[in-house]
Design goal:
The complex is a heterodimer of chains A (about 150) and B (about 500). Chain A is α+β, with helices and mostly antiparallel strands and about 150 residues long. In chain A, about 15% of the residues lie in helices and about 35% in strands. Classes of the chains: A alpha+beta (about 150), B mainly beta (about 500).
């Protein structure tokens, strides 16, 4: 919870400095292909100045989570300025608060990125996943497929 | 004619509801530019039969004609692995290392030899066979529209080597899991999981089995910059695992063990993630950075945290002979190339049927890692590759290394790729070699030493190896008295067909 507050604070701080106009753009994230009701779906919004850290959670400007539901789940990030944003999300199936990885760092739980960017050589960077909010009253709807390593093997 | 036959099949098929099946697998395969170029080159270069590959899932010969007398005491199986196909439905791979693994088993008993060759039934092979087309990019091939590769096992081709340990026969790749095989039928039984935490972990193609049965190996994950070490006990249980971050990290094909250490040599051929995104395959994601030199990493077996880095001049290596240590001084031998051009250029161009030699030969080299940072390297003149030692001296003091070798490196002929036309036993103390020269009409493959049952000598036994006979257009298996290699083979068993040129083999007494 502490981390969430910190994120909210940094979000507010960042936007009060750089964006004087009203913030009313939105990104609506529809996550689909969720394989079970177990645990949570964790969604991180990246943008602003820390995009190099993508997809590390520490670099996110906002996070949302909700109980997992098999199939699909929607999230809305509101009051956003114009600019480039990217989504990194995962399915915390065992509810331990993190994306579990194997010995060599490859995710064991489901994950996904905006633009459904491929993760063939590890997680994609911000550029490969970024979507753009071009006006201040825009609502951008994006679909993200939850991908599980095992389903492919 | 082909078209009409296909039309008739389809016409008949509609009534039977079989149209879908035919549509999935067209009778006339459209060949891509590389495949056509290779086939044209093959007409004038008989050596290219070694890179043609086979479309047959199974190769069987129950009784190979033998010239000479096959030693009756040599009762067991010689297994080999290597890429068995080089194209999928007319689309040719861009690199020799890309194709699906095919295991060859030569069974020897009562002075007779049988052969069975089968592809490893990886998920990738099964999926592509079913789809009738290439579905994923490979190690050195970028496929437009490749399916995503979330884990190396998605593109595991199990095509490098084999391991027989704790009663299991495994086909090895180096970036993913081993595949379990039925030793008799060569049926693929599935991927090997050593433990829950090691599920899907990369497992090198050159594990080392010590005389007491302890298995040491490593794995590397390029995209994560991690190198892992594993100790597996004689019964196949994971005893110890260590993971370290290495930056920058590149392909590591082989390593060595001594009584107390694991020894790694890291060529300055390193993975770059941005380049991987741009190029779309693992090989082209690597950059040659000679300014890094070759980093030598030693890790203490009983404490993975006790590690030491040393430096060698820039170079490239695939294979190690052996290593041993005496009062903290490590002696190591390996095969050293000036750079990675054999991998990036020679083994790529050969897929178009073009022989494009590397900048220089791979040669036998001996390294002494002294106390402190002291490093000494001695490089032999002769070209050498595929070094092997007697199984009883792995990690212990050895004297002899068996390998393929070349004559004067500059005199390369088109039909002797790698400049390797002979098999030698090298005395690492005197530098003397004893050789059998196959000559330019053969492409010899790795030869391995098999000790006479009950003997722990490094030379009392046989040397066993295949060679592609370019005049016959077929593969042979030769056995030598390891003490008298220069006399030529004791016996040669000739297959009625050629096998795709492969990489590494093992011998089991079963």
């Amino acid at each position: 919870m502490k981390q969430f507050q910190r994120l909210l604070f940094s979000l507010t701080a960042a936007f009060t400095v750089s964006v004087p106009t009203a913030l009313c753009a939105e990104i609506e994230v529809s996550v689909h292909s969720i394989r079970s009701d177990k645990g949570k779906i964790m969604v991180a919004l990246h943008g602003g100045e820390n995009t190099k850290q993508f997809p590390n959670e520490e670099g996110a400007i906002a996070m949302q989570w909700a109980k997992a539901s098999q199939g699909a789940r929607n999230f809305v990030f509101r009051d956003l300025p114009q600019g480039e944003f990217a989504i990194a999300l995962y399915h915390d199936e065992n509810d331990n608060g993190r994306l579990d990885k194997g010995l060599m760092g490859i995710p064991k739980e489901g994950f996904g990125f905006s633009r459904n960017a491929k993760a063939t050589f590890g997680p994609p960077n911000f550029t490969k996943t970024a979507v753009e909010l071009t006006s201040e009253d825009e609502t951008l709807a994006i679909d993200v497929k939850m991908r599980y390593r095992k389903s492919l093997l | 004619m082909t078209i009409r036959r296909e039309f008739l099949k389809r016409a008949a098929g509609i009534g039977l509801g079989a149209l879908k099946m035919h549509a999935a697998r067209p009778a006339t395969v459209r060949k891509d530019f590389r495949q056509r170029k290779f086939e044209a080159a093959r007409k004038t270069n008989p050596a290219l039969i070694g890179w043609t590959g086979t479309e047959r899932n199974r190769l069987i010969c129950d009784d190979l004609p033998i010239e000479g007398r096959w030693p009756k005491e040599l009762t067991g199986t010689f297994y080999r692995n290597g890429p068995g196909c080089h194209e999928v439905a007319g689309r040719r791979y861009h690199h020799w290392f890309d194709g699906d693994g095919m295991v060859q088993a030569f069974r020897m008993s009562g002075g007779r030899v049988r052969h069975l060759g089968r592809f490893v039934g990886t998920k990738k092979r099964r999926a592509e066979q079913k789809a009738g087309r290439m579905l994923w990019s490979a190690f050195g091939t970028t496929l437009d529209g490749s399916r995503e590769i979330l884990h190396p096992d998605a593109v595991n081709v199990a095509n490098i080597s084999l391991l027989h340990h704790a009663g299991e026969l495994l086909a090895l790749w180096e970036a993913g899991s081993p595949h379990r095989l039925d030793p008799r039928s060569l049926d693929t039984l599935g991927r090997k999981t050593w433990s829950d935490s090691l599920a899907g972990a990369p497992f090198s193609a050159h594990p080392k089995i010590e005389p007491d049965g302890t298995l040491w190996t490593f794995g590397y994950a390029l995209t994560q910059g991690r190198l892992a070490f594993y100790r597996i006990n004689a019964s196949g249980r994971v005893a110890k695992v260590g993971v370290i971050d290495v930056d920058p990290l590149g392909m590591i094909h082989d390593f060595a063990v001594t009584a107390k250490h694991l020894v790694f040599v890291l060529p300055p051929f390193v993975f770059d993630r941005e380049r991987a995104f741009a190029k779309g395959n693992i090989l082209d994601a690597h950059i040659w950075r000679p300014e890094l030199g070759m980093r030598v990493l030693t890790v203490r077996k009983d404490d993975f945290n006790e590690r030491r880095w040393r430096q060698l001049p820039a170079g490239f290596t695939f294979h190690f002979g052996n290593a041993w240590e005496d009062s903290e001084v490590i002696q190591l031998d390996y095969c050293l190339a000036p750079d990675a051009t054999e991998l990036t250029q020679t083994f790529r161009e050969i897929m178009r049927g073009v022989w494009s030699p590397p900048t220089g030969p791979t040669r036998f080299a001996q390294v002494t890692l002294g106390k402190g940072d002291a490093v000494e390297q001695r490089i032999a003149d002769q070209a050498a590759e595929f070094p092997r030692v007697a199984p009883g001296v792995v990690g212990r003091r050895h004297r002899y290394v068996y390998s393929l070798a070349g004559g004067v490196p500059s005199r390369r002929s088109e039909t002797a790729p790698f400049g390797l036309d002979r098999v030698v036993r090298r005395d690492t103390e005197s530098g003397d070699t004893e050789a059998f020269v196959y000559g330019p009409k053969f492409i010899p493959e790795e030869h391995i030493f098999v000790p006479r049952p009950g003997s722990d000598s490094e030379t009392d036994g046989w040397l066993l190896g295949t060679a592609l006979d370019l005049e016959r257009g077929a593969t042979q298996l030769a056995v030598f008295n390891a003490q008298r290699i220069g006399d030529g083979p004791l016996a040669v068993a000739r297959l009625p067909y050629s096998l795709p040129l492969g990489f590494h083999g093992i011998y089991t007494a079963e």
